[in-house]
Backbone:
């Protein structure tokens, strides 16, 4: 039986974390999309004002997955929530309970911090959607994700200078 352990990532883990992020990009069919560097992760995750937290999962001491998250805020509940940016389990470690342990720990963090909810997005083709449903997590069909990147940000921000 495999031994699964979780712990909060530290600055010493940025190389491992970046490797796991690259594994996620390959899984999501975007192997060249990762432009983040170890320096970026170090600065934004472990600098003076951390912008994210990360759990790293290990199976028998070997890095097997991660969950990267940060607080959001609900105007309706008046409380912070946890936004899960990414969760990933290496292929060799799937079906061992790693994903379930990561999700359970994230739920516990929400409750420990007296936050109001736990949000994340999933690609429509991702078979992990069935896993989330089995955990009792609902798909919010009435919400559509939007994102402003690069060109859209520049166009919109230009209007701020008017």
Residues:
């Amino acid at each position: 039986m495999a031994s699964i352990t979780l712990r909060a990532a530290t600055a010493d883990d940025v190389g491992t974390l970046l490797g796991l992020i690259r594994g996620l990009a390959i899984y999501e069919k975007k192997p060249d999309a990762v432009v983040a560097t170890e320096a970026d992760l170090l600065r934004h995750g472990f600098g003076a004002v951390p912008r994210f937290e990360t759990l790293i999962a290990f199976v028998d001491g070997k890095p097997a997955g991660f969950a990267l998250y940060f607080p959001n805020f609900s105007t309706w509940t008046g409380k912070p929530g946890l936004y899960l940016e990414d969760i990933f389990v290496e292929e060799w470690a799937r079906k061992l309970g790693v994903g379930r342990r990561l999700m359970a720990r994230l739920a516990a963090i929400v409750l420990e911090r007296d936050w109001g909810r736990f949000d994340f997005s999933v690609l429509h083709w991702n078979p992990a959607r069935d896993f989330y449903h089995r955990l009792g997590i609902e798909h919010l069909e009435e919400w559509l994700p939007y994102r402003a990147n690069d060109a859209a940000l520049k166009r919109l921000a230009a209007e701020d200078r008017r």
Observations:
- Strands lie at 4-8, 53-59, 62-74, 79-89, 118-120.
- Residues 56 and 91 are 15 Å apart (CA to CA).
- The chain has a mean pLDDT of 95.
